[in-house]
């Protein structure tokens, strides 16, 4: 009787957990569709790259005069390709929202697939992925990294299943997903390249390690082909191999990076504390069973970036590694009933609170973005624009690159696009090196201003610094007002 009652309680708890996770996923999707704009920092840059690809030869936007399409095997482009393909069927903004909706659904499912490969008792911890759906990287608009998380954990779900990894059909799937992971995000690909063969060596031996490693050879070759054509970020043409392994410098980056965890939001504190805990747990483990051998890679995941080639050093690479380590922490959490119930309850409650906070963020930022985008849309189309963004807009996630919406709507170009040899779109001619964070008028000499059709000032006109900059533009001949509003003022020269 007691055993039957406990089974019923366990069964009911699993259904409640599944229903709670499903409701949270649906709520997160509704959030994307409820509001016009997705207020993530790099999202406008992704939208613009996708718009350029979709309308490259459209004279209305004049994209072909300023940009080239990059047809080389460039990593970190898969999210743009996915949205472009959807963009041939539905409008671009709708396509982008479909992409985010798929991410919200597939990220927890891929993580669940991985956890069930370790132990079915760990399934409830897939709520970690729901909790981290709107992570720091989502707010940054790192869409390729978000996509790579799905591929990464789906790959891991295959690797930890011995019966699948022996199948020829699944071997082909590992190869396909390894290639897709390369095109999704180079950092995550590199983690997979080293950690998956490492796991297979610990768990199954050298032969299985080599088999899995072979699936990553083609993406590695593609990487060096790209580097040989472009010089890339490693700088192979300039003897970059000598600078590939600056471990001391990267160790300093790791140490200094923990200060943001002490000064920023609770999620980053969790990354730091969780990562440190996992290091201690992994360091004291021996490779005795499947869970332990898989858990041991958390140590590798965290410290692997110390030995990365410099091309993999993004902004805060340690944060991405710790983020992955925290997700791997799901396999190290004990599966005892009361521990699982406590942890799952905390995750559901935390996810609900996070949704409430995010909903307020979407609502407030959309209210601020609407008049700014409306004002930008009034600038004459297909112009070369020099945007000058004042605080606090330059610091906020939602407004840091809001000027890109002009080009999404009307075409043209500016010098701050994320269009390089590392993207699906690049400039035809290299742009001058300018800082978006510099609002000192002396930073913009007349010869620089005259290269652009329009100078757009984004900032509160009640701010003295904004008014002084507008006065400086008028003194330099930019006296024709194209747009005037409380936050957006655009000027062109009377005669050019």
TrEMBL record:
TM segments?
12-35, 98-115, 127-158, 170-193, 205-226, 269-287, 294-315, 321-339
Which superkingdom, per the lineage? Bacteria
Q: Does the keyword Chloroplast apply?
A: no
Keyword terms, alphabetized: Membrane, Transmembrane, Transmembrane helix
Note the coiled coil stretches, chain numbering: none
Keyword Glycosyltransferase listed: no
**What name does this protein carry?**
Glycosyltransferase RgtA/B/C/D-like domain-containing protein
Species of origin reads Candidatus Auribacter fodinae
């Amino acid at each position: 009787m007691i055993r039957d009652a406990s089974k019923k309680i366990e069964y009911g708890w699993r259904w409640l957990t599944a229903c709670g996770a499903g409701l949270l996923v649906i709520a997160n999707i509704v959030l994307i569709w409820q509001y016009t704009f997705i207020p993530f920092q790099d999202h406008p840059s992704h939208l613009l790259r996708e718009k350029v690809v979709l309308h490259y030869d459209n004279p209305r936007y004049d994209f072909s005069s300023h940009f080239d399409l990059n047809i080389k095997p460039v990593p970190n482009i898969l999210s743009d390709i996915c949205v472009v393909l959807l963009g041939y069927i539905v409008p671009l903004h709708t396509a982008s929202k479909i992409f985010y909706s798929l991410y919200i659904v597939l990220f927890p499912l891929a993580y669940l697939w991985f956890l069930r490969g370790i132990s079915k008792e760990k399934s409830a911890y897939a709520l970690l992925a729901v909790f981290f759906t709107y992570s720091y990287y989502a707010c940054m608009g790192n869409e390729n990294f978000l996509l790579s998380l799905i591929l990464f954990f789906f790959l891991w779900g295959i690797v930890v299943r011995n019966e699948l990894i022996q199948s020829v059909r699944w071997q082909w799937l590992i190869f396909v997903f390894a290639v897709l992971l390369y095109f999704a995000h180079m950092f995550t690909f590199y983690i997979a390249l080293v950690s998956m063969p490492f796991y297979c060596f610990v768990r199954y031996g050298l032969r299985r390690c080599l088999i899995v490693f072979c699936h990553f050879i083609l993406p590695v070759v593609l990487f060096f082909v790209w580097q040989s054509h472009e010089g890339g970020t490693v700088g192979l043409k300039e003897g970059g191999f000598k600078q590939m392994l600056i471990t001391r410098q990267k160790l300093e980056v790791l140490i200094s990076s923990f200060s943001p965890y002490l000064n920023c939001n609770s999620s980053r504190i969790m990354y730091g504390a969780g990562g440190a805990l996992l290091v201690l747990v992994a360091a004291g483990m021996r490779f005795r069973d499947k869970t332990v051998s898989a858990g041991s890679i958390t140590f590798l995941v965290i410290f692997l970036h110390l030995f990365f080639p410099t091309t993999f050093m993004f902004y805060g690479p340690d944060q991405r590694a710790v983020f992955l380590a925290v997700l791997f922490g799901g396999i190290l959490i004990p599966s005892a009933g009361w521990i699982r119930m406590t942890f799952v309850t905390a995750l559901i409650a935390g996810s609900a609170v996070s949704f409430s906070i995010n909903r307020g963020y979407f609502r407030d930022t959309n209210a601020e973005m609407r008049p700014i985008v409306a004002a930008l849309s009034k600038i004459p189309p297909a112009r070369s624009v020099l945007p000058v963004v004042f605080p606090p807009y330059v610091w906020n996630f939602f407004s840091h690159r809001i000027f890109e919406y002009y080009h999404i709507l009307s075409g043209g170009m500016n010098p701050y696009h994320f269009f390089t040899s590392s993207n699906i779109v690049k400039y035809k001619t290299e742009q001058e090196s300018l800082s978006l964070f510099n609002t000192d008028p002396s930073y913009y000499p007349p010869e620089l201003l005259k290269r652009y059709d329009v100078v757009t000032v984004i900032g509160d006109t009640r701010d003295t610094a904004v008014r002084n900059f507008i006065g400086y533009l008028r003194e330099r001949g930019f006296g024709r007002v194209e747009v005037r509003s409380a936050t957006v003022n655009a000027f062109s020269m009377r005669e050019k």
